[in-house]
Amino acid sequence: MLRETAESQQRRKEAERKKREAKKRRSLKKLESEEGALWNQVDQQIAEKDQKAYDVAIEVLQQLHTLAKHKNAEDAFEQKVKIIMKKYSRLSSLKSKIVWANLIRNQSQRRKAIQ
Q1: At what angle do helices 107-114 and 92-100 cross, to 10 degrees?
Q2: Per the CB 3.0–4.6 Å rule, which of 51, 52, 95, 97 could disulfide with 113?
Q3: Are 85 and 48 members of one domain?
Q4: Are residues 1 and 24 located together in one domain of the fold?
Q5: Same domain, 23 and 47
């Protein structure tokens, strides 16, 4: 009886894991289909030059970062983030938010962003 309970728990956990993985795949697929629009949204939010808009932009960038990891495209993602940081180089709070969100891997680039 205990063995049956343990086996049913194991099956339930496996089913839950598969359900989470399927949900994650659907989410990534949706992000991928909206990728261009999301990059545009980031630019629009930053252009507002408002702290709340920066926060929205960072949330979107985090989603794009997740997608980039999934696609093994982190280098391309970082290049786009660096372009954004260069384009808006005078917005120190935006740069700080990008660094704190760990959207840049390179430590020297992180130090430059804070300066």
Answers
A1: 150
A2: 95
A3: yes
A4: yes
A5: no
DSSP 8-state assignment for residue 41: H
Contact 53/46 with Cβ under 8 angstroms?
yes
CB neighbour list of residue 42: distance below 8 Å, 6 or more residues apart: 57, 60, 61, 64, 84
Rounded CA separation 34/108 (Å): 31
Are residues 39 and 58 part of one domain?
A: yes
Tens of pLDDT, residue by residue over 50-80, are 999 999 999 999 999 999 999 999 999 999 9
Structure pTM? Answer: 0.77
User: Could you tell me if 60 and 45 are in contact, meaning their C-beta atoms sit under 8 angstroms apart?
Assistant: yes
Rounded to an integer, what distance in angstroms lies between the CA atom of residue 72 and that of residue 89? Answer: 27
As given in the structure block, the two tokens for residue 25 are 């795949």
Beta strands in 1-115 (DSSP E): none
| Structural domain count of the chain | 2
